[in-house]
Amino acid sequence: MPESDGRPRVLFISQKRTSFINDDLVLLSERYDVRPFEFGGPASDEPTRQAGALARWFARQAAWLQKELPRAALIYGWFADYHLTLPVWMGRRMQKPVAVALGGFDANVVPDLDYGVYGSAWRAPLARYVIRNASLLLPVSEKLIQHENAFAAPPEVLKNGVAYHVPGLETPYVAIPTGYDAHAWPMGPAERPPVVTTVAYLGQERSARVKGIDLFIDAARRLPEVTFQVVGVAPAFEPELRAHYQPPENVHLLPPRNRDALADVYAGTSVYAQLSRTEGLPNVLAEAMCCGCIPVGSAVSGIPDLIGDTGIVIDRPDPDVIADAIHRALTPGPDDRMRARMRIATQFSVENRRRKLFEVLDRLIAGEESWA
To answer: How do residues 250-273 score in pLDDT, each as one tens digit?
Structure first.
C-alpha cells in the first residue's frame, strides 16, 4: 500500500473550496496523508479565453498527477465534472481507486434555470465519463441517485439523479450525508422574535431562482408583521435583486457573512426557510436546525431527509402554502427547537460521517469491491 509518514496518501481534488469541501479535507487529514489540488475555473465567459484557461489548468493537473499518483493509495474528488476527468482516466491506467462525492449539481437538472452539469453540451459527457469510470460514488443523499422533483417546475415532474442522467449506470455507490458538529452550532434561546431567515450566496439571478428567493419574498408579502431576512446577497447584485423582485419593507437583504458568524444569526431566527428548487443536502439548513431554528423547506432531494418530523416540508411552490407553513412554524412548542437540534446532532453528526467515510475509503484502499 503506498504510504507516507505511515499513512495512506489520498489525492483530494475539488473545484471551488466550499465550507463542506473544506470540512472533508480536514476530516480526511485525520487519517490519511492528504494532498489537495484545487482546479481553478475559467475566469472569462468568452469561449476562446475559457478554453485557454481550462487547457492551462488541465496541464497543471496532469503534471501534478504524474508526480503524486505513483505513491497515492486513493483519489478522492468532489463533484462529477470536468476537473475529475483526467484523475479518473489516469487513476484507471495506474489502477488507483477513485471515490467521487456527489453534491447536487452533478446529479440534478432544472432546464428552465440552466442548472445542472447535464445541461451543458461539453460538460455532460465528461461528467458521465467520471461517474461511469469511478470506483465508487459517495452521494450526500440517496436522492442524488434517483429522485422525482415536483417542486421545481410544476406541473412538470423532473426526473433527476445520476441513475437517470447516466443511463445504464453500474458504478456502485454508498450514500454518506455530510456531518455537523453540534458544539460549533450552539442551541439558541427558546423564545425568539418572529424572524424568518434563509442563507445563500446570491450573485446572479439564476442563484436567486435556484434558492427560491422569489418564493421567500412572495411569502413575506403575505406576512407583513414578520421579519424576513436573506443573508448572502452580494452588494453588486443587490440593486438588480431589488429591482426585479421589489421586496416589501419586512424583507431585509443582508450581505454574505463568514460561516463562523452565522450561529449568531440563527440564534435570533425563529424559522429557517430552505425553498430551493433543486438541492443536494444543504449545510445551512442543517446548521440552522442545530441552532434551534424550526425548519420549513421544499420537498427537494435531501431537504426532507434533514427536516424529518421536526418542521414542515412543502410539496409545491405556492406562496400562500409557504406563508401558511411559516406562520404555523412561528409558534413552536417548548420542545420543538430541541427536537430540530437533536435530529441533526444524532442523525447527521460529523462523527457519523467520519466513521462511515473512513470505513468505506479504507475498504477501497484495501481493494474491496463489494458494497452490498
So the answer is: 999 999 999 999 999 999 999 999
Rounded to whole angstroms, how far apart are CA atoms 58 and 242?
A: 39
pTM, whole model, 2 decimals? 0.95
Angle at 342 between CA 336 and CA 347, to 5 degrees: 135
Angle at 292 between CA 286 and CA 294, to 5 degrees: 75
Nearest to 85 by CA among 156, 154, 15: 15
Residue type, 185: W
C-alpha span between 143 and 301 (Å, rounded): 5
Give the mean model confidence (pLDDT) for residues 227-237: 98
CB 37 within 8 A of CB 64: yes
Instruction: State the pLDDT confidence band at 313, using cuts at 50, 70 and 90.
Output: very high
Residues 187, 335: Cα–Cα separation, whole Å: 12
The bridge status of strand 195-202 relative to strand 98-102 is unpaired
Q: What sign for the dihedral angle of Cα 355, 358, 361, 363?
A: negative
Residue 193: partners with Cβ closer than 8 Å, 6 or more residues away: 227, 268, 270
Cβ burial 103-121 (10 Å sphere, 16+ → b, else e): bbbbbbbbeebebbbbeee
Q: How far apart are CA 265 and CA 252, in angstroms?
A: 13
Measured CA to CA, the distance from residue 67 to residue 149 in angstroms comes to 43
Cell digits of residue 368: 474491496
Q: Does residue 4 carry a pLDDT above 90?
A: no
Q: What are phi and psi of 98, to 5 degrees?
A: -130, 120
Sequence-separated (6 or more) residues with CB below 8 Å from residue 103: 20, 78, 79, 140, 144, 280, 281
Provide the 3-class DSSP secondary structure of residue 129. Answer: helix
Measured between alpha carbons, how far is 247 from 305 in angstroms, rounded to an integer?
30
* pLDDT tier, 47 (very low <50, low <70, confident <90, very high otherwise): low
Distance CA 68, CA 47 (A): 31
Residue 30: Cβ-neighbour burial (10 angstroms; 0-12, 13-18, 19+) = exposed
Could you tell me the three cell numbers for 26? 480536514
Helix, strand, or coil (residue 123)? helix
Which one-letter DSSP state was computed for residue 156? E
